[in-house]
TrEMBL record, chains A, B:
Non-allosteric. This is Pyrophosphate--fructose 6-phosphate 1-phosphotransferase. Diphosphate binds at G15. The record marks K142 as: Important for catalytic activity. The lineage of its organism: Bacteria, Bacillati, Bacillota, Clostridia, Caldicoprobacterales. Belongs to the phosphofructokinase type A (PFKA) family. PPi-dependent PFK group II subfamily. Clade 'B2' sub-subfamily. Mg(2+) binds at N115. Keywords: Cytoplasm, Glycolysis, Kinase, Magnesium, Metal-binding, Transferase. The gene is pfp. It comes from Caldicoprobacter faecalis. It is an enzyme of class 2 (transferase). One of its GO terms (molecular function) is metal ion binding.
Amino acid sequence: MGELKGACILGQSGGPTAVINATAAGVIQEALKQDCITAVYGAAHGIQGILNEKFYDMSKEDPYELELLKTTPSSLLGSVRYKLKDPDEDDTEYKKLLEIFKKYNIRYFFYNGGNDSMDTCNKISKYMQKVGYECRVMGVPKTIDNDLWGTDHCPGYGSAAKYIATSTMEIYLDVRAYDTKMITVLEIMGRNAGWLTAASALAGVQGYGPDLIYLPEIPFDIDKFIDEVMSVYEKKKNIIVAVSEGVRDKDGKYIFEYGPALHKHTDAFGHVQLGGLAATLAGILKEKTGAKVRGIEFSLLQRCAAHIASLTDVNEAYLAGQAAVQYAVQGITDKMIAFERAEGPEYKCNIKLVNLTDVANVEKKVPREWINKDGNGVTEEFIKYAMPLIQGESRPPFENGLPRFARLKKVLATK
Amino acid sequence: MGELKGACILGQSGGPTAVINATAAGVIQEALKQDCITAVYGAAHGIQGILNEKFYDMSKEDPYELELLKTTPSSLLGSVRYKLKDPDEDDTEYKKLLEIFKKYNIRYFFYNGGNDSMDTCNKISKYMQKVGYECRVMGVPKTIDNDLWGTDHCPGYGSAAKYIATSTMEIYLDVRAYDTKMITVLEIMGRNAGWLTAASALAGVQGYGPDLIYLPEIPFDIDKFIDEVMSVYEKKKNIIVAVSEGVRDKDGKYIFEYGPALHKHTDAFGHVQLGGLAATLAGILKEKTGAKVRGIEFSLLQRCAAHIASLTDVNEAYLAGQAAVQYAVQGITDKMIAFERAEGPEYKCNIKLVNLTDVANVEKKVPREWINKDGNGVTEEFIKYAMPLIQGESRPPFENGLPRFARLKKVLATK
């Protein structure tokens, strides 16, 4: 594992978060420092940009703008949901990738994403090994869903959790302004894992939490739900119920399909795109109970709110990107950067490496023992786990009253 | 107009904002300093609390918690939507109020609210004058809708505008992560006046603005809307459309009534409570165009987001409350505190007084000349007007990663 001289390329993949660009800053700033890295490319829309030979020369960017990436949400290089075929069945795209890697002498490949993206990263890593092209491949975790296997948590989660907890607190005060009865249903993202919805419980640490919380880990029974809501509502008269967009009944049918499903789509991985659940449940509760019910969907706001990101999350996202480059330069390949929580009373997170093979396509759900017995709330263990992840406040610099986000020149690399 | 010795009472009324409690801090802290004010009461749920003889002794509160009111959203004393009868038809409630005012020797009445609340304030003022009970009555403006007559702008608007502009910028980046076509419809509050929806245009100052903006001031033509959206969509492929919840067709029918109206309610003033417009329009656009369309409703988040309030707004809200007390002590009554923008290149706002009679029930809409010719955007004049109002960032102190909002003891006043 001697020195490997060549270019590096970074791809952003999967759904946006508040800190995916902070990871990009970590990768790019670190790579620009490394002597053995001869060029630093940023792929336009992940693997798709590489296949289309469309990537940017990051050395052409203003260093101040690269610094601003730390507080700029979404995927500024452009993201993608693109599933590579099994190379044993069809290796056309892999051959194309290899050709481009050779053409630009790309020897370092960094891919920042979630489960599906680690699958892509893993396939490329294994293919390059198979054909004997020396290239160090490193996955960097990213997902607000926090469902990646092998890591204590994922960059992106802490910021989304902080936004959700803060907004839940603010809504708690808002819906209590009037001396009237009301049920508020919060719809929170999370297709199969309830990490984000569980984060609403953090508002309860300050005394402004939801009364009931429903995660997709537990089959959702609409009658039980109505009974539980009514039981709390009768006692408290003004209640908040947090529900994951991904809740399904015992037969696996999404609850939002019970009502008008206005945002139903299917993405390239065959995932149904969710939405409209809050409205559906609000309609059902209104019909069944006659209560005043308001549905609130946090929607995209929860994943792109850089203005109230977790500083811990931003710093860790940056470090993950930086570490990926440092390890790769040292000779590591075929791994994903992961976090390991140190023992002891103080929160401390160390970086470890996990095998891409082990991570690809595996989903980590909220453990059953962190969900209460009735399946309508979370336990103290979850709170202890999540609180350190939302510590510290990060926001972009504000200019003229508005956030100043990074502006990239996006100079296309040529050969 | 000599010194008037007696108690004062503050009522919060109408919809929550991020800064209504900042005004309360201004009133309470200033009133506690005044020798002629013998007690400082805060009404539980505005006029309803006074009628029910339920109000709090604010001198019992911890000064630190009163200070925290400046960064605590919603209406911490409790708000109300309650319409007093015409005293010439039924003066029962006025007699009750007079009795309570006499019992507690209330000589200063401060009412913080919007159009409807100024109607309440005006009726009480005129009644007290008619029956010869000396009481200084001051209205203090408050509404995210910014539709109060006689003032340059209203406390609450700047913070909601800042939240809307910031969130629009973040959504702008989020929806561009993928290299795919999409129409995003933002639903923004505002029943009859388009000030809040217009604020989405402020995101455009940084280059992240919506492509089309529809205000309730202009009759909404669904076919024209579809044509305009499609025309921009064909050129740009990824577009954002901001629409006020209150848009109506030429016959006055709400557009959200074209589709499923899940949140339809009527409040005490006979206003229809709106919501679900984004979903309705998204559904219509999807059906007509086949495009991928996402509807996002800012919902309550836009009016309670103290975590990204405008510092200018917070400061002005505080000053308005403070000024109300100072003027009343000096002998002024039957007025509302208003803002007047000073001439000159620098933004400076002076306090002036307007007659309650002139303010009650009058709505100030966005001037036609601040809306573009096609009725689907705003002009530079609007931007110039609104930008100073979102300057500076205010947020609550954060403790353990979460906002620390004011906690009041709410000790009931007794006599």
